Each structure stands twice: as C-alpha cells, then as structure tokens.
C-alpha cells in the first residue's frame, strides 16, 4: 500500500473502534495464533464486534501474506492501467473503422441499395404499365369491333387472358376482368355469325356482271377450314370420351380379378372395394381436368370455385367449342350443330364448288383464246408476243391449281394446241430462211462479224441464248477472217453463221415455252438434216459440217436438261444427226483423196528411175500437193487437215510401190535405189515443209517390197 491509502484505512479503523469499543474480557493475545482466533470468534458476545474481529484477522492474514498481497495489489494497478490503454486503443480502432466505413463502405452499400431500389421500381413500373395496358383492353376491343377487326379483338382477348392468369394473377382490381372478357368473346361470336351471314347472303346474291368485283377471294377456303376444324374437334372430343370408358372397363376387369383373389384368400371384399376404387376415381378426375385445355380456368380473384363450375356446366349445355386454325374458339349452339356426315358432305360440296368455279374460268379463257385464234391471229404473233401470252396463261393455270388443288386440262390443252401451231410456223419460217440462204450461198469464205464471235464465245462460257441487244452507241469492230471456237480456227460461209443463230433461237424458245420441248427437238433435228442434205459437196461444206458437229453435244445437253426421263429416247435424233454429219464429212474427205489418187496414178505410172534428181514426176507431185494444202488448210481444222494428208500420203505410197515393183527396183543399195531414195527425200521434205504437217509421220519405208 502507498502511504495515503494506509492512512485512510487507519482512520477508518479508529472510527470503528470508537463506535464499537472492545470488551474487557476480550483477550488481545488471541490474535497472535491462528488456531486460537477461531475459538475466540465462537465466543464473541455481541455481533457488533464481528467487524473488528474480521478486520483483525484480515490484517493478520495480510501480515502473513503481505508479499503476495502487495504483489496482487500491484498487479491490479497494472491491470487497470493496461485495461485503460486497451480501452483507448479500442476506442481509437472504432473511430478508424467508423471513418473507413464512412469513406469506403457506406457509399458502395448505398449504391447497391439504390440499384436494388431501382430494380424494384422498374418492376413496379412495368407491372403498373402492364396493368394500364390490360386496363385498356376493353376500350381497345370496342374500337376493333367498330372496324370489324374480329381476329384482332380475339387475339387481344386471348393475350389479356393469358396475362391475367400468369403475370397479373392475384391482382384484386382485375378480379372481374376475366369474366368480362368471356362475355366479350360471346359477343364477338354473335357479331361474327351475323357478319358472316350478311356477307354470305350478299356474296351469293351479287349480280353476275363483268364489272362486279369480288370483295374477298379466301371465302370458300375459310368455310372449308372451319368445317375441317369442327370435324377435327369432334374427333378429339370422341377420343377423350373413350378414355374414361376404357379406364372403367379396365377397372371392372381388375375388380373382378381382385374379387376372385380375395374370395380365394378369405379376405373382406368390402375392404378391397374401398381401397381399389380410391385411385381410379382420382385418376379419372385428373384426366377430366387435363382433357379440357381450352376451358376457362377458375381464378380465385374473379369468381369462386362453385360459381365457376356452375358457369362451365351451363355453357356445356348451351354451346360447344371448336378451334380454328388461327387458335380462335368458335362457339356453336346445339341447335346449329351438324353431324359428322353433314359436315363431310358440306366439305365435299365446298371443294366441288371450287372445282366447278375453276373449270368455268378455264372454259371462259378457252373461249376467249379460240375467238382470238380465228383467221390465224395467234399464229401471226412473233416469238416475243406469243411467249408473253403463253406465260400469262401458264401463270393463270398455276394459280388456279394452287387455289383449288386440281389441274384443269381444258385451257392447258388449248394452249398446247396453239403452241404446236406456233412451233410449226416458227419452224417453217426458219427452214424457209435457211433454204433461201443456201440457194444464194456462193460457198466462198466469208468474213466473221464481231457479234457472231461474241455469240460463239458466250456458248463456250455455257450460255445457250441469244445475246441481248445493247442500247446506245457501241464501238464498231472490224470483222475477222475466221471464226475462233475454243482456240480452233474455222473458215465459214455466211449461211453457217446464221444457222448457229437459228439453232440458238430454237434453244431459247424451249426455255421460254417448256411445253414445246419435244416438238422443238424434232423440228430442230429436221432443220439440221435439211442443212446436211443441202450443204455443197465442197471443202467449205466439210468445214461447215465440222463446225455444226462441234455444237451438237452442247445442243443435246441443253434439251436433255429440259426433258422428262421418259422422253430421253428422243435424244437419239441428235446421235443420228451426228453420224450423218460425220459420214458426210468423210465423203468429202474421200472425194479429195480420190482426186489426188487419180493424179498419183497418172503421174507415177510414167515415172522412170533416172537422172536428174529430183525427177520431173516428183516435182509435179510436190507442186500439186502444195496446191491442195493451200486450198484446204484455211478451210479445215488442223487436225482434220493432217488426217486428210495422211490418207493422201497412203495413196501416194501405194502407187509408188506399184510402179517400183513394175520397174523391178528393190531396196538393195544400188544406183537405182539411190535415185529413188533421193526423189522420196525430196517429196518428204516438201510435204513436211507445208504448214501444220511438220510432225506428220509419213513412214516411207512401206514403198519397198518386204524381203521374204
């Protein structure tokens, strides 16, 4: 203890001694021993001395344990100082945490609270906006009904009903809106029936005049779709009614089985019935609820369940519903319902009425077509005008087929008849034109205008059609001497150029009028055969035929793509034409070979093996070969020219071999053999020096007789 505290305690002690003075009998010596003090305490005569005795004992105990006591007091003061510092540190920490919370956390948490509040406000706003929209349903329906927009009104009612049952379920202010919308649907049903009756009456009683326009084209289709929808609804209703009957039959069978089993086992049958009937009844109830998805659900905030049940039962007695393809319920009174047989007859009559209307339209179109076809008016139309007429008719036929689902053949047959007449005139005009061209053809090489070269290039690019006429001024290009087809040069006459254009006119006509493909094929083959028979038996004729043969596979592929598979046999006409053209080309080549063959026979029959070398005979032969080459090289393709000279060379070797055999000149290395070899070398050099014949394999060893 420090001095001040000790003095305070001594003062307190002195006051206590004055207030409670000790008795004379109290022996102070008892305080010196611990054991005797306990006995003294038991002998305290008055309770007022208890405090003094306790203090004395405490002082004694303190004196005995003074060191521990003072240590405890010292520790207590240290602890108080530590607690004071701790309290100050805690206070400082709390202040810092408060500052951190204010600076770093409070704002962020406030933002999160504001964001949550904003989302809630947006949800409330959207909900209120939706409620405002739903609130405007009835006025909007009234506006739609004023303009006879029944479909839009029914869609709006169906959407509103769905919103009320899902997003706005439980809203007290809309508790009567569902029943009000149901009443609006019934009203719309009556208005639609009245509107349809009025429209049908006016439509069926309209005057049959040309200027009377039909207000709606989709009427029979609507009637037909409604009838089919009612039939489908009746079918599904019967299927749903058969399900409980099947379940009841299955339940009866199961009960019979259980009864037999329970009798055998000796159980109570009444208990078994009570257990087995419980589950099927629950199942039937659930199935009946699920079997009516189109029924109006009973909402807790609109009408009570008994009222809803009463309304549904009464509505079932009065009306029956049917669903149209547009998902709109149609309420039909019981006295207006038709049987399935009557509905089927009505659907068939509607379809037959549509067929009859289509046939009448086609018959009237046929009469109009025949009236215009008098005096050959349609046959006088040019290709463009007839193609336009044909496309209009084909479009009309296709549209009526799409409407009624059946193709009418009367107009199609009349159009085909006119198309055949058009094809016949088309063919005769071009055949006459080709005949006049052939009559006036001089069979001399003609220049090739630039537009014909462009036409050939477009065919090479896969475009089988006449080029479109270019409007405006175009740059004039000079004509070329030859026609270049895929890198190959052809010397042609004017008739061949025009024939290629005529062939493309046939191909384009097939594209524009597909129904005349087979007829056009036979007419084109006839035209090609006619050109083959009229082509001149000259070299230019061979070149012209060779050019046409080059395009026959292209023309064949064009027609093949537009024929039905069962008509592919008609393509054999092109195969026959190709064979005829090749035969004709071979005949012309054979004629040229025959000319040279007679020349070789005349010259080589007088050939004598003697100096000088080269001999006059071989000089004359090489001169005639050069003239032949000069005459045909620019007129025939290079490959055909080489084949022709190979045949001429074979004829030359045959006649030379015959003459050498006649002169008994053999390949023995003698003087005569050397002279012949020099003449043959002169011939070979001159022939291979000609243009395009450098690499020609002449094989001159065949002129000598083989040694046996």
TrEMBL record:
Listed GO biological process terms: Golgi to vacuole transport; protein transport; retrograde transport, endosome to Golgi
Subunit architecture: Component of the Golgi-associated retrograde protein (GARP) complex, also called VFT (VPS fifty-three) complex, composed of VPS51, VPS52, VPS53 and VPS54. EIPR1 interacts with GARP complex and mediates its recruitment to the trans-Golgi network. Interacts with VPS51 in an EIPR1-independent manner.
PANTHER family xrefs: VACUOLAR PROTEIN SORTING 54 (PTHR12965), VACUOLAR PROTEIN SORTING-ASSOCIATED PROTEIN 54 (PTHR12965:SF0)
Keywords: Coiled coil, Golgi apparatus, Phosphoprotein, Protein transport, Transport
Biased composition (Low complexity): 312-322
Subcellular location: Golgi apparatus, trans-Golgi network
Lineage: superkingdom: Eukaryota
Chain intervals with Polar residues compositional bias: 285-303
Taxonomic lineage from the root: Eukaryota, Metazoa, Chordata, Craniata, Vertebrata
Protein name: Vacuolar protein sorting-associated protein 54
InterPro entries: Vps54, Vps54_C, VPS54_N
